[in-house]
Amino acid sequence: MCLGITEDELGAYTVFEVEENLSSCAAEVPAERLREQLMQKIIIEIKKDLYRNFSEFDPNPWESGKIQLPVKIAYFIKKSEVCTVRAVALVKSEDISGLNVLKYLPYEYKKYYLEKVKVKLDRNFR
To answer: What is the 3-state secondary structure (H, E, C) of the chain?
Structure first.
């Protein structure tokens, strides 16, 4: 069990990874920078999924700090000649697919897609 997830539950999650080499094992782990890189990967995946659903792409940049997505992050350090830090993020696949992701976005990000949903609904119910 890692991050409170059993092996049986792991299939319900999407895994994101980033890795960075450190100059020495005594160097400070760049946890915040790795976390931001992970969040940017997650944002790209979310935007791709929304594009598949809406055939529209929100061109505006998103700040990861505004997204309230439940993400589990772990850091692993491999010590050898070069120290390597690997950051791994686990997100429930259902949380980042389809319209489910909209509940984790601030209004300023989701309004773009809500307007698209409204237009589709208006078209379907006329």
So the answer is: CECCECCCCHHHEEEEEEEEEECCCCCCCCHHHHHHHHHHHHHHHHHHHHHHHHCCCCCCCCCHHHCCCCCEEEEEEECCCCEEEEEEEEEEHHHHCHHHHHHHCCHHHHHHHHHHHHHHHHHHCC
